[in-house]
Design brief:
The protein is mainly beta. The protein contains two helices and 34 strands. It is globular.
Length: about 300
């Protein structure tokens, strides 16, 4: 049985984050500290490092717990070809209000835990995996992820690559568009942990040269709820590509809209042009998945 993070787990994380925050300070870079290393070295758990408006190049491991890395807003604080690796195990690390541009590979690599809120990831390139690669606990929300090109070779995840055994994995309220990859133009999912929740996102105009124009699923624990998929493209699974055949291993998938996909069939399970090779609704999709017009769709589920 798949479970969302328990209230107890979230309460423990919140308690850890609140400890020592009474004396939290804001540290300004670069006006107060001209070098980001210096700003980071003086920061304590609960502090905020405010990266001021302008274009910056920063490559840094974030190993301290419960820091906030705050920018002046998308398009104002620009991290050019920059990289953060997050290794702390909790999700009270927060990266917010920053644009990451022209990264060669990942902009953020989450080994431990992190929340990413209201950030932009654009124009990344190279053969590495995703603008964000998350291997542990993460919450990614309110972001714009677009124009990232990982289509060379066999790169997975143009926008996001989500895998690992984390307890918390939430992707919500994001706009993900115009990304490319070999598999998973927008998102590549290879989770081996608890359920990843992908909800309330708008995912459009992404493409994969092989499979999963919007999302390529390899892991078997994912909730897909209230998303809109429009105009994604791939030879196999222009919206989704799955690597398994048993409907009991899926979802739940609720109230998603799929419209105007191009290329191959909208949903492909690795062996059949129609999902599961039949024209029947898989049980966990019943009344919950809505498919709209697509020229190449040959086996649509009824719209109810």
């Amino acid at each position: 049985m798949r479970q969302s993070p328990s209230r107890t787990t979230l309460a423990v994380i919140l308690l850890v984050c609140l400890q020592g925050f009474a004396n939290a300070t804001i540290i300004y870079y670069p006006s107060q500290y001209a070098d980001f290393d210096e700003a980071y070295n003086v920061a304590q758990p609960g502090d905020t490092i405010f990266i001021e408006a302008g274009t910056h190049h920063i490559v840094h491991d974030l190993q301290k717990s419960c820091l906030t890395i705050l920018g002046a807003g998308m398009g104002n604080t620009i991290m050019y070809n920059s990289f953060f690796a997050v290794t702390t195990p909790d999700t009270c690390h927060l990266i917010k209000n920053i644009s990451f541009e022209a990264h060669n590979g990942n902009s953020i690599l989450i080994y431990g835990g992190c929340r990413i809120d209201s950030c932009e990831f654009l124009d990344g390139y190279g053969s590495d995996l995703g603008a964000i690669k998350a291997e542990a606990n993460y919450i990614i929300r309110n972001c714009k992820i677009h124009g990232n090109d990982n289509a060379s070779g066999t790169a997975y995840g143009g926008g996001l690559k989500l895998d690992g055994p984390g307890e918390i994995g939430i992707v919500e309220n994001n706009e993900i568009y115009n990304n490319t990859a070999y598999a998973g133009g927008a998102i590549f999912v290879a989770s081996t942990g608890n359920s990843i929740v992908i909800r309330n996102n708008v995912i459009y105009s992404n493409s994969a040269t092989d499979r999963g124009g919007a999302i390529c699923f390899v892991g078997r624990t994912c909730e897909l709820v209230n998303n809109t998929f429009v105009g994604n493209n791939a030879p196999l699974g222009s919206a989704f590509w799955f690597s398994w055949n048993n409907a009991s291993e899926l979802g739940p998938y609720h109230n998603n809209i799929i419209a105007n996909q191009t290329g191959g069939p909208a949903i492909y399970n690795g062996s059949s042009l129609c999902f599961f090779g039949q024209c029947n609704e898989p049980p966990r999709f019943s009344r919950r998945l809505f498919l709209l017009s697509q020229a190449t769709w040959t086996c649509a589920f009824p719209l109810r």
